[in-house]
Amino acid sequence: MLKKEMEPYALISMDINMPDINGPEVVKKMRQIEQLLGVPAVKQAKILMATTERDLKHVSLSYYDGCDGYLTKPATAEDVKKALKELGIIT
What we know:
Distance between the termini: 20 Å
CATH topology: Rossmann fold
CATH class: Alpha Beta
Number of helices: 3
Strand order of the largest sheet: 1-2-3
Structural class: alpha/beta
Helix content: 25-40%
Number of domains: 1
């Protein structure tokens, strides 16, 4: 959700490795904000992480930190479509 006013975000997509802060840290902060705003789990923004990391540790930590989906780069259009379907963003 993350927006107190107007329509909430349905999907947030980010890389796991970003300058200055990493994706899992951002996800934790976003989930904390949603919790503070009282956003029910079913209305929280779906978070899709993308990375070149392929090891189980990175994947597991991303889900543990609150991400909803994970794409390994390079991702094809079909990979993205599949991930969006799994998140319920598209049918």
